[in-house]
Amino acid sequence: MNAMPYHEAAEHHAAAHMRALGYRDARATKRGSDGGLDVVANGAVAQVKTHVKTVGAPDLQRLYGARGVHHHRKMLFYSLSGYSPKAVAYAQTAEIMLFRLELDGSATPENENARKLVKLAASTAAAQNASDSMTSARQEAARRIAAQTPAAKAEYERRNAAERASW
C-alpha cells in the first residue's frame, strides 16, 4: 500500500478544516494545475506549506497574487512551521487567515484574522443548530396538532402564522 505524500495529505487536512469553517465545497487541487493554490472553494482559497523553514511574507504575497481578481474569496494559509513576524504583519494588512497545521491534521489559528474566522464559524454553527432544533420542535408540534381535532389544528395554524409574521 502506498502512503499519501505528506504535502498531499496536508492539503486534504486543510480542505477538511475549511469545510468545518463553513466552506462546504473546499477541495484540494490536483498537483501541478493549482495555479499556486492548494485548496479552493467558492468563498475562499488556501495555500499549504509543509516545509521546515518558517513561512515569510513572500509566501503570503504569492497567495494574494494567486487569488487573482476574485477578491471576494477569503485567503487562508496553513503552515507546519509557523510564520515570521513580517509574515504575520503582512497577513494582518492583507486580511489573510494564518493557521498552524499540526501533524495530526488539526489546525490552530495563528493571527487575529484566523481567530475571528473560527469564532464566526462557531457562532454560525451554533445558530444553525438552534435553528435546526426549533424546526424539529415545530415539526413535532405540527404532527401532534394534525392528530387533534380540526378546530385545534386551525388554532395552531393561526398562532403559527401570527408568530412567523412577527419575525
Strand content is 5-15%
Major sheet: arrangement of strands = 1-2-3-4-5-6
Classify the helix fraction into a percent range. 40-55%
* Global geometry: elongated
Summarize the helix and strand pattern as letters. Answer: HEEEHEHEEHH
Rounded mean pLDDT is 81
Enumerate how many helices there are, as a single number.
5
Nearest-angstrom radius of gyration?
22 Å
Major beta-sheet overview: 6 strands, mixed
CATH topology category name of the largest domain:
Trna Endonuclease, Chain: A, domain 1
Question: If you had to describe this structure to a student in words, what would you say it looks like?
Answer:
- The chain is an alpha/beta fold.
- It has two domains: 6-116, Trna Endonuclease, Chain: A, domain 1 (3-Layer(aba) Sandwich), CATH 3.40.1350; 122-166.
- Helices cover 53% and strands 15% of the residues.
- It has five helices and six strands, in the order αβββαβαββαα.
- It has helices at residues 6-20, 57-67, 85-94, 112-146, 150-166; strands at residues 27-28, 39-40, 44-49, 74-79, 96-101, 107-109.
- A six-stranded mixed beta sheet has the order 1-2-3-4-5-6, sandwiched between helices.
- Strand 5 (96-101) and strand 6 (107-109) form a beta hairpin.
- The model has no long low-confidence stretch (mean pLDDT 81).
Write the SSE topology.
Layout: H1 6-20, E1 27-28, E2 39-40, E3 44-49, H2 57-67, E4 74-79, H3 85-94, E5 96-101, E6 107-109, H4 112-146, H5 150-166
Parallel strand pairs: 3-4, 4-5
Antiparallel strand pairs: 1-2, 2-3, 5-6
Helix pairs in contact: 2-3
